[in-house]
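Listing S7. Sequence submitted for prediction.
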Amino acid sequence: MGAGGLIVPPEGYFDHVQAVLAKYDILFIVDEVITGFGRLGTRFGSEAFGLKPDTISIAKAVTSAYAPLGAVTVSEPVYHAMLEESRKIGAFAHGFTYGGHPLAAAIALKALEIYERDDIIGKARALIPRFQMRLKALGEHPLVGEARGMGLMGGVELVADKPTKRPFPPKLFVGTRASMLVQDEGLITRPIGDTLAVCPPLIITEAEIEELFDRFKRGLDRAEAMVAAEGLRAAAGP
């Protein structure tokens, strides 16, 4: 879960979810807007988790974000159900203004060609161990309660008290302010509450991964100094 703070489900979580869905004949709708096209070292995040989705929502990386495009893939049973119902009224009565726009579609086709031609996903997969090792190392920082992630995705959660993981009050805006200090070091992160998320380009190099986390560490050091100077831990209460 990206926008929720880089939450990685525990091992076996989706096995249990899929068992419940199968038992009650419920479709599995999977959002791969963030995890699709190599972010987890596989074509889709579903492969990394062993999922069997009925539909997959995709966007962003399908065009490498050079143009807006979204799409939904569907399984054979879902396709035939839509086909059958459409025959009753003579058309597939669904659409929106810019559906199938040729510009975005052309860019997507080229992006998909480049993914395969340059083995973007394979190269990204090879860098994941180093990325995750450097990410986990940030978990030792005094301001960090947890450093978590998967593939080339990471989230660093800032806390007022490391042993108990007590959070800062939202009104202190510690995450937002920390992200600005990290940005001052030349690294853009996304503050989600007090979790700083980072998802680098899939064409990143090993040397750039080292630089990324060096800059991240310097920004966190500055954030820790800010917290100490302003007494923000005391403001967070017991």
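Caption to Listing S7: primary sequence and predicted structure tokens for the chain studied. The helical segments are 13-23, 45-49, 76-89, 102-117, 120-137, 174-184, 206-230, 232-235. The first helix runs from residue 13 to 23.
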